[in-house]
């Protein structure tokens, strides 16, 4: 099996009809490709069996999580070069590497088969979600999906997120730190909601309690936080007790569909709606509308994707679905706005924070890499590899405008149509700019 790297490079370049922009280092010690380029390291030929068994993203993801594929050099650069090679040449190029009838694809598969070693393919890594069949977004299935993502150890998330324990896009100023940017994001949400002493706030998808603590401590709100993650809830309650805020904050392990103690003056939903799913989004919007007082405000902070020409062709990303956010779905911001207004809300403001999320993710990746050994001990080598790849790839998606994130401020109108919002929009920016 001499010079596996040269054979792999030749096969890939024949398939793609252009030179590879990365070096290949193979399990036999051979190397091929531009000497000054970052390297894609194939540590074991099992990776090829995974790719043959599950062509495309899922096969590559399994090999990455299992540690059979790695990179030498800058991870962002490797991902950027590979993405540019495969996906940024348009739909025709993307489709050209898939059909089995394509002679180039068949030749590529035969070449991999010669290098891959004996069958059968290895089992998927333990970190891959094991899901039951059946309808999407039932209460039970959603709870299992949330547990897969969030119940991986509070210590692990503390290493990645830092002391703020906020797992959503921060709000940056030049020269600021991650902690300052997360504090500013929480404060921005409170000001957009117009919170004041004694207001009842429902925090949907409350995470580790950071939004609830900020709203209670700085604005005097009485907060109910809900999450489906028992680990998050336990950590949030501990923090709240340490802050002396148990008289102002209640944390529940509860589905948003089961909240029945409205009306609330305001609702925050920060990074939760991505889990709701298209089949439930209208129900989600209607439930939140019913839980608000007339004149009450909703702040919906949500990742959005670019619209598809054919929306029926949208598919959940295979790697993210299998390893990160099972059953998670992204929608274009226009569809989200339309659904909220169909439920009765009046949309009053939309703020795009796409660049802010790229900056946030780069900080999380740096935290993970800086604390790598601790992170591996806190969860597993495969799980740490999942998060490193997921966050680095997401960084590039935000930077290249493949996905975005938006804060939508909506109001439940008064019976006569009023909003109780000020005549001048975005009064909340005055304090931030001062």
From TrEMBL:
<keyword id="KW-0808">Transferase</keyword>
<keyword id="KW-0949">S-adenosyl-L-methionine</keyword>
<comment type="similarity">
    <text>Belongs to the CFA/CMAS family.</text>
</comment>
<dbReference type="GO" id="GO:0032259">
    <property type="term" value="P:methylation"/>
</dbReference>
<feature type="domain" description="Polyketide synthase-like methyltransferase">
    <location>
        <begin position="156"/>
        <end position="396"/>
    </location>
</feature>
<keyword id="KW-0443">Lipid metabolism</keyword>
<dbReference type="InterPro" id="IPR050723">
    <property type="entry name" value="CFA/CMAS"/>
</dbReference>
<protein>
    <submittedName>
        <fullName>Class I SAM-dependent methyltransferase</fullName>
        <ecNumber>2.1.1.-</ecNumber>
    </submittedName>
</protein>
<dbReference type="InterPro" id="IPR020803">
    <property type="entry name" value="MeTfrase_dom"/>
</dbReference>
<dbReference type="Pfam" id="PF02353">
    <property type="entry name" value="CMAS"/>
</dbReference>
<keyword id="KW-0489">Methyltransferase</keyword>
<feature type="region of interest" description="Disordered">
    <location>
        <begin position="120"/>
        <end position="140"/>
    </location>
</feature>
<dbReference type="InterPro" id="IPR003333">
    <property type="entry name" value="CMAS"/>
</dbReference>
<dbReference type="InterPro" id="IPR029063">
    <property type="entry name" value="SAM-dependent_MTases_sf"/>
</dbReference>
<dbReference type="GO" id="GO:0008168">
    <property type="term" value="F:methyltransferase activity"/>
</dbReference>
